[in-house]
Amino acid sequence: MIKSEICEMLGIQYPVFQGGMAWIADGKLAAAVSNGGGLGIIAAGNAPGEYVREQVRIARSLTSKPIGVNIMLMSPFADDIAQIVTEEKVEVVTTGAGNPSKYMKDWKEAGIKVIPVVASVALAKLMTRLGASALIAEGGESGGHVGELTTMVLVPQICDATTLPVIAAGGIADGRGFAAALMLGACGVQMGTRFLSAAECTIHPAYKEKILKATDLCTMVTGKRLGHPVRSLRTKFARDYAKAEYGGMPDEELEALGTGALRMAVKEGDNDKGCFLAGQIAAMVKKEQPAAEIIKEVVEEAEPILLGAAKWVN
After folding, report:
1. Residue pLDDT, tens place only, 155-174
2. Contact assessment for residue 273 and residue 240, using Cβ atoms and an 8 Å cutoff
3. Which of 6, 8, 10, 170 could covalently link to 142 via disulfide, CB atoms 3.0 to 4.6 Å apart?
4. Pair type for strands 92-96 and 230-233
5. For residue range 266-296, what is the model confidence (pLDDT) as tens digits?
6. The dihedral formed by the CA atoms of 147, 148, 153 and 159, expressed in degrees to the nearest 10
């Protein structure tokens, strides 16, 4: 069975994280992933603090295993949520869309493992100096907010730049991707899009159907003009947004066009007004299955690949 230092650090069975997907990764999904041996992560997104507290308590009612919370540092509620994760004794905090340095001292004193998402070597080095427990190196193949570098390029550079355990994310959906991440120097993986197909994932049925019917060229990136590029499915909303982005619409109007679009996709499955976040591996997601089954399947696919790697060496 695949084990790594991150398993011992966090008290999890498999080195598999579930991505913190805003409005998607709730307490129910996080608990299912944690019960399956991975690390379930509740997404704070732009939600208010009390929503996050409620989801943590839902997860606690469904699992005794460690859970995490992903805090989007651009959120207007980030300060409140930073305090709530301490009060609720969350085991792990992952962060994105910013620098978590102002919170790290308090989190560490509370015994929380802090694992920032990084998309550059410079940020990885800074987080290492500030005392992060591990890092998530996320390539631009992922869904949601994306950086410039691909996972294949980013992960080995992050591994070379830090002494911390590194979790690979972006474009990983099966055992082949898991094995490749370990070969690049990572000690585990984070998957987001694959868990959209989990039976415990409560996205609108139309959203789940789009993932299960996705093709290799099904995603596109919008938002570069505003400095916050986002990868999503190539829907009417995404195409309309791209036209507005490069058609001269003022920044304020463009911001307003995207406000609430993810929630419309998650809760209502609205193809015209909803932004359906997904990574480039969406086409590899073929069926709905329990979260625990997804984790087991990915790990079991990776094991013979890793064992067979020696056949390439004489």
Report:
1. 999 999 999 999 999 999 99
2. no
3. 170
4. unpaired
5. 999 998 999 999 999 999 999 999 999 999 9
6. -40
Rounded to the nearest 10°, the torsion over CA 197, 203, 204, 207 is -50
Residue tagged 């570069």 (tokens): 224
Place of tokens 């410039």: 148
Residues 6 or more apart from 267 whose CB is under 8 A from it? 23, 204
The span from the CA of 172 to the CA of 302, in Å, is 12
Residue type at 175 in one-letter notation: G
- Name the nearest CA neighbour of 198 among 12, 16, 30, 8: 30
Sign of torsion, CA 207 167 42 298?
Answer: positive
pLDDT for position 313: 64
Dist. CA 195–CA 182, nearest whole Å: 20
The secondary element (H helix, E strand) that includes residue 115 is strand 113-118
CA distance 311 to 301: 17
d(CA 111, CA 119): 25
Tokens 């984070």 — which residue? 190
Please tell me whether residue 43 adopts helix, strand or coil conformation: strand
**pTM of structure:** 0.92
Q: Which two tokens stand for residue 76?
A: 């207007």
Helix (H, G, I), strand (E, B) or coil at 38: coil
Q: What is the dihedral sign for C-alpha 286, 292, 295, 296?
A: negative
